[in-house]
Amino acid sequence: MEISKERNNNDRDNREGLKGWLNPSRYGWERLSYWLQRLTGVFLIVYFIGHVYETSSLTRGLDAWNAMLQLTQTPWGHLFLILVIGTSTFHSSNGIRLIFTHAGKGLGRPGRPDYPYDAISLNYRQRSGIWVALILAAVAMLYGTSVLFGGK
Amino acid sequence: MTLRESQIMKIHYITGLAALFVVAVHIIMRLIMPFNTSLEYGNVIANYHNILYAILLESILILIALHGFNGVRIILIELRQNKHWENGVTIFTIIAMITIVAYGTRTIIMANGLGFE
Hints:
The complex is a heterodimer of chains A (152) and B (117).
Chain A (H helix, E strand, L loop, with lengths): L1 H8 L2 E2 L3 H5 L7 H27 L6 H11 L2 H28 L21 H26 L3
Chain B lengths: L4 H27 L3 H4 L2 H9 L1 H29 E2 L1 H30 L5
């Protein structure tokens, strides 16, 4: 009861709100990865909702399905799908890195904070993980392009 | 029953990894034949009539709804912290999760032939 009361008294909004959340510039690579993980996640959940709605046209028969395909199977629709492929690949591979990081793997040993106070936890393993996620996303997008525009 | 955040994060990670696996199978099913052919009405309905594939689609639906809406909940709670906001966000995400799973399940059941044809 006391804890809950104290918590209510200390309630306050995040001072920067959405503006602070959307600013990836101040905290280095880890922040950029944090920002991309959330942006791709939001994009993918919006796509997921749209995809569930899109496929529901199946239940209205052949004409409704073909009408939906005419809307989505266009060059713009394919470009959108390539973006989905890239974001989902980045989100998955960076997500796996985050699972390891959350479990304490790949963080290195704690050390004394010395000037210029670079985060010791953001070592080459973490940086490489972020790069691997970005490269895998680019490769997946290239493969998606070859399938969607290459007529395979 | 209240889950601790650490338990919710475990669920978040497990659903994420499981979703990665089932979505990979879902994409492979689109690539075993030319992409445009795989999207033809007859082919898609045939996929839904395969009970194993229907189960796979249902599991994708549940896993991504759980993972995705929990992700939205985490983002919204990071933006602002107070008891009413946190409770409101949790209720909103649970309702959204149930709605999308129910709507997607309806499609799977109808396209599977149980309520369609």
